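Box 3.1 A note on notation
Throughout this textbook, protein chains are presented in two layers. The first layer is the amino acid sequence; the second is a token string describing backbone geometry. Keep the layers aligned when reading.
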Amino acid sequence: MAATKFLDAIARLPDCDGEDSDAVGAYTQVKLDNVSHLLGKGNEFVDTWVQLPRNRWPASWHVKFANCDSPPVCPLRRNLYGHKLAGLLWQKHEENIILSLGFEKLMEWECLYVNKTEKLFLSVYVDDLKMAGNKENLPGMWDKLMGKMTIEKPKRFEDNQYLGQSQRLIEPAAVDVERMGKAFENFAVKKGEASARVAHPELRKDGK
């Protein structure tokens, strides 16, 4: 929640914007034929065998296994929700992609990344991706992400997402902007400025 509010605040700063997207069929984007490297040194993924519902059987199976006492099984080839390692495998797969695009994990933030070169922050929660920062660099970074994983077309944070929020919710986000703005080179926020801009979008220089 704190990371989301932080990106909301970043998106309201001058020359910045924010967009979010969802990974399509997230877990199933991971193929299980070579995932041991995602589990870390010394850990090996053990093949998983599953039973298919009869309505998903190939036509030949209804003849081949018509008189079989036990249903047939087959190897699981895609990461599937419900597998004990499904969440971990997706997280590691997704993180490898994010890091390969120049992002770095922020210390003490489990799901927040920064790309200092592109001046962008990225928040990830399972299959929800939210990015904010230099608005000129947002489209290009989304294109790079879409080249490595299947995600929906990014949508801009709606202005009404910020209107009507209480000062109790705004101020913590503004404090994070002031504290973490140093992650960007040549990026500074005057004390109090972030709070004013987040609380009152009409104060933005561009009038948006």
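Residues 159-170, 185-208 have pLDDT under 50 and may be disordered. Residues 36-75 form one domain.
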